[in-house]
Structure formats: structure tokens, C-alpha cells
């Protein structure tokens, strides 16, 4: 069995799925891939099944409803840990993340990093084809999250990651309740608080070429509220201990 599992959450990614799976196969031919589909009405799940029938390294986990990114990843993580994989990868299905960056990210994990984040906002990272407003929102949100949580991670919201299984196993996944980008913040911050080693690898993030972004105002509001509450609680806890 491969020691690496790539988790690919999908919801209405019919146009993007064949391309991202092909690129993953080129970059990590020995890795297994788990497509986690939330009952996409456009037929993404059926397409995933047909592609899996042609490739024994691809499996599909069908979920009964659209439950959000966080729940999809929690289901994927549980599958990976139960199956005994050593490394678990998060990547977007829309092609924004370049799978060619995964071999060096895996090398960092195998060299001792417990979480490797493909970072847009660390030196050498950048974003292509985003309007300046969206770039400003992302940069500002990350800076605020870093300040509120007293985190050293530059790109807390990145969804391009390589986890060591031991770090994932240390998390109480049932207690990670956030969705969307806030899920990424919460998982990284919990690992950082736990003393696990986090390394950022600069990437070029390219806006999706097909389909529609799942980003909406509710995701942003959830992240701001939760980050503010977590940060305040963490500061209060530290004051009580001093």
C-alpha cells in the first residue's frame, strides 16, 4: 500500500476533476487518492466512480449531503488514519494548487516537519489572476488571524497541506467544528499550540479556470468570529497562568 493519501474534496467539480487527478498522477504516481464527494448534483461523484474504476489508486467516499469542507476533510482524515497512511495531503479540486509542488513538500515532511503548508504569503509565494480586492481580503484575514492567535504561520487559511499522520492523530477531530477557511485556521493553530513543527513552502496559487468558487460571506464571518473568540480565550488563559 502507498504511504501517502491525497484527499480531494469535491462539490460540483465535474469540469476540473479529470485534470487535477491527471496532474496528481503525474506528480505523485505512487500515492493513493481519496475523492470525498458531497453528493454533487452535477455528476462529479459519478465521474469520480468511473475514473476510480480505471485506477486502483483512486477511491471515492460519497457523502449524503453538502456538509462543508471541514466535515469532508474530517471524514478523509479518519479514513487515512484508519487505513494506516503515514502522510495525508490536502489539495483543492479546482486546479488552483499545483501538484508539482507536492514532491518537495513531502520531502519536508519526511525530513521532520509535522505539517507542511503550501503558502501564498511567505517569501517566494504569490497569487495569480486574483483581483486586488480578494488579495487584500486574504492578506488582511491572515494577518488578523496571526495577530489574534499569536501564530507564526503566514498563511493560516491555505488548503494545500501535507500532514504527518502522528500530528493528525494528536487532534481531537470531533472537536474541530469549523468549516471553510476557518477549518484550515483551526487545524493549523491546534497543531501549533501542541508544539508540532510547521513549515511553510512557497507556492504560486492560480485562480480556478473552470467552475465556481465556494467562497461566500458566511465563511469570512465565521472565520473572523471564531478567530477573535479563540484569541481572546487564549490570552485570558495565559493571563490566569501568570
Explain what the structure shows.
By secondary structure, the chain is α/β, with parallel strands linked by helices. It has one domain: Spore Coat Polysaccharide Biosynthesis Protein SpsA, Chain A. It has helices at residues 17-27, 44-54, 69-83, 102-110, 132-149, 165-170, 180-193, 217-241; strands at 4-10, 32-37, 58-62, 87-90, 115-119, 126-128, 161-164, 198-202, 204-206.
| CATH C-level class | Alpha Beta
* Number of spatially distinct domains: 1
SS elements, strand count: 9
Radius of gyration: 17 Å
Low-pLDDT residue intervals, each spanning 5 or more residues: none
Tell me roughly what share of residues is in helical segments. 40-55%
Assembly classification: single chain
CATH architecture: Alpha-Beta Complex
What is CATH's topology name? Spore Coat Polysaccharide Biosynthesis Protein SpsA, Chain A
Helix-and-strand structural type:
alpha/beta
What is the H-and-E element order?
EHEHEHEHEEHEHHEEH
**Spatial shape:** globular
How are the strands ordered across the major sheet? 3-2-1-4-7-5-8
Residue-averaged pLDDT: 90
Amino acid at each position: 500500500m502507498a504511504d501517502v493519501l491525497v484527499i480531494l474534496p469535491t462539490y460540483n467539480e465535474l469540469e476540473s476533476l479529470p485534470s487535477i487527478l491527471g496532474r496528481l498522477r503525474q506528480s505523485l504516481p505512487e500515492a493513493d487518492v481519496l475523492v470525498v464527494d458531497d453528493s454533487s448534483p452535477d455528476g462529479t461523484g459519478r465521474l469520480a466512480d468511473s475514473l476510480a474504476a480505471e485506477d486502483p489508486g483512486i477511491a471515492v467516499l460519497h457523502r449524503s449531503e453538502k456538509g462543508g469542507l471541514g466535515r469532508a476533510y474530517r471524514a478523509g482524515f479518519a479514513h487515512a488514519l484508519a487505513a494506516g497512511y503515514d502522510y495525508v495531503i490536502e489539495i483543492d479540486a479546482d486546479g488552483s494548487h499545483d501538484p508539482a509542488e507536492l514532491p518537495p513538500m513531502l520531502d519536508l515532511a519526511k525530513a521532520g516537519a509535522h505539517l507542511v503548508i503550501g503558502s501564498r504569503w511567505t517569501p517566494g509565494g504569490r497569487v495569480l489572476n486574483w483581483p486586488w480586492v480578494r488579495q487584500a481580503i486574504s492578506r488582511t484575514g491572515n494577518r488578523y488571524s496571526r495577530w489574534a492567535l499569536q501564530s507564526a504561520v503566514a498563511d493560516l487559511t491555505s488548503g494545500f497541506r501535507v500532514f504527518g499522520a502522528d500530528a493528525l492523530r494528536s487532534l481531537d477531530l470531533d472537536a474541530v467544528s469549523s468549516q471553510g477557511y476557518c477549518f484550515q485556521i483551526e487545524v493549523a493553530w491546534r497543531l501549533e499550540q501542541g508544539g508540532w513543527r510547521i513549515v511553510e513552502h512557497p507556492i504560486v496559487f492560480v485562480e480556478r479556470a473552470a467552475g465556481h468558487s465556494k467562497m461566500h460571506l458566511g465563511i469570512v464571518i465565521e472565520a473572523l468570529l471564531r478567530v477573535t473568540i479563540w484569541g481572546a480565550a487564549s490570552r485570558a488563559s495565559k493571563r490566569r497562568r501568570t
